[in-house]
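Researcher: First entry.
Model:
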Amino acid sequence: MKQLLVGLGDRSYPIGIGAGTLSQVGEQLNLLKFAKKVALVTNPLVGNHYGQIVVDALRRSGREVSVIQVPDGEAFKNHETLQLIYDTLIERGFDRYCGLVALGGGVIGDLTGYAAATFLRGIPFVQVPTSLLAQVDSSVGGKTGINHPLGKNLIGAFYQPRYVHIDVSVLESLPEREFAAGMAEVVKYGVIEDADFFKWLEENVESLLQQDPDALIHAVMMSCQIKANVVENDEKEQGLRAILNYGHTFGHAVETLAGYGVIKHGEAVAIGMLIAAEIAREKQLCAEKDVDRLRNLLLRLQLPVMPPDFTASEYLAVMQRDKKVKEGRLRMALNRGIGSADLYMIDDLDLLLPRLLVSCTAAE
């Protein structure tokens, strides 16, 4: 396995990345002296595929394992599901010396992380992400939380895992749509931080879609390294880290308006990235050719680029509840060409967005 380190002082942790390594997770936790009594949080779909492999690996490493299954899907990333986790932990006698293992995609990781952050004021947890989106994004960096009916991820905490165990082989079981959704976050890293990586993605679309292990490991390694670099410099999103939300401001509005789970997170981010790029072009931060490169790459990766048919007023109302709103003003991550991004105050979005939505419709 290849390893990266997220360097956060006494909260630092390794990320292990490989292919066919799921059965090694218990050995890795022993190296970290992780808790011996653990609860594996998963959903029925992931649990049926990989639950027994991970449970066996944890037991071989000398651990007492409980399994907590929660419903599958973004619609269940809520307080009711969180309460189910709390109830089970209390009923099974978990204390501060126990730990949680998140086996699943971003919903499982966010829920488990928030449960770990808040149960008994904090117990350790590890991430074993099984979706591409979770492997390259949500499992790294310590953002945990749940959704609220009025907005995505409005309730949560920054709470770092002790370890992230990534096995790209599990991506073989993902539906094509789920895999494509994860690629949106991979593309994001190239746009905001690494022009060479973006070019590599353009040149390796077929290898990635065919899930060549070497290509996948490289894409995941690069994505995790870029995110780790940003998180190390701004753990709690006071400034720089907010560039990781590139495409998310409009994307979260898409998810909220469509209904959680109707449009997948990565699909919404793809749409949001193109809107952000169009705004950047309007503000002369990037050229038309940059927007075209982004659009073409997203389409080649089988991602949507057209916003759902909601009005500009509906989008704006949700975007004003975004966590990056500061003193009533919306901050957005915008790209400067390909390979760089920054935060900008957007005071004229009420004028820009209606025109961009009309333009998108015309392009379709």
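Researcher: Second entry.
Model:
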Amino acid sequence: MRSVFYEVANTSISRERFIDFTKLIGILFLMVNSFTLLRLQNSGGELFVSNLSVNSQSLMIVTWFTAGMSLFFFSMGFNNLIAWYSNVGRDGSQWNYLVDRINTLLGPVIVWIFSSTLVLNFLSRSENFPNYLTTSEDGVMSSIEFILWPLWLVSIYLVMVLFAPFTIYLHKKYPYATLLSLITLTILIDNINFALNLSYIKLFNYLFFWIAIHQIGYFFADGKIQKVNINVFRYITFFTYGYLFYQMSVSESYLSLASYRLTSLNNEDPPTTIYLIASIGLICLFLSLKNVIEKVLNNQKIWLLISHIHSNIYTMYLWHLFVFFSIYLLGLTTYYAPLILLIAAFIFGNYERSMFKLSSNLVKRVNPLQPWPSPIKARFSINNFALAWFSALLVLLGVIHLTLGGIGQDGFFTIREFYFLRSNTFEGIGRIFIGLLLLNITVRGLKYKKRILGGSILFIILSLFTRNLIDENLTSFEIYFSSGAIVLFILILIQNSNYKSKTRVQ
């Protein structure tokens, strides 16, 4: 932990401590909600999982003020735009940006996936480990899928990074029109009743809603929000929460913002207008308290405590539902949760702590209103960017599979059906590792490029072959997707083979 002490002692004057605090509190809200809103209990020989905010108005109100995912992605919007400016300030490339941003989060995630795969598959062989949970709607949920719920945050983060080069361009060209369009699309899609065969359109709100929250962070990074009178944020906070309280008094609408995928009726899956209003209100609430928060964070002891938690926050978040589940199975009280999370952070969080940085020297500003230096464009190469973007997409698909399908609980080659693409656990984990290898060879390890591309082609062919082992047919989309990936890798291989650098002395 000495590196954390060093970072705190040398924190740059340009550091936005408010953003670090907002990110930290956002994730802590998610963890606190899990321990206060979720309950596990035996019911007729089954393990019943319930969400207390479903039937409690007071707890519904609590979820409005603890919508931590929105705070997190607001802060990540700031961080991602700052990283973009830092990247172009170093004459960086668009694919380099993708690699750096994805590696920042995927490091602790990979450690967690590897560790939890071993632990969960070992525990699932025990007679005392309940493989399935019963929900309030008499549904059945895999225990491992429940424990892996934190991967939703990782999935959404990957989507934000994938679209970051495009959303940053839109922000620079049409900042207000872009944000207004995203908010309008979110509201329209949520409130239009689509025919059953068009119901998939609702899923686009995963994209429009979270990009809208992410874009608000861009405005903070550019200094536009700092120019707004603080009373404006107070008024917005008052009106947004006033609207939510009004809805509670006159409507029977479901208003909880914490679902954990336990009910079919919710405001998170996909995000709704209610979630949008509460998110804007919560962000404005924090912005209205910005000066007070920054004054508190200037205290060196408080900043040291915040930084220590910050340097382990992803690890603790990823493990928190595993700890919640374990506490129930072992018959412990929730008071043990902070201690167990602390132990998990020390055991599994070393990678995250080693990546923890507060005093970065990439780009420094005297104040947030100071304009950014040129160049304003990152270097671009179709081949490298296409490979990096598609590699990140493979990682995203792998993470989505593990989020929805667990880690081999029903067999390593058992097919799980998703919205548009099926896969088994072998393909899910393979996509993550292959995607990360391909992503990183765009900036480092170039001598292994041919081998990794060749190995990726073999992996795709092997994953298709595993379908034959279990007599599972491939859909047309899966065939086109796999064929397109192989063609892309072959084209890059051919172009890489034809490229030769020679130095001649005339």
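Model: Note on the second entry: The first helix runs from residue 2 to 9.
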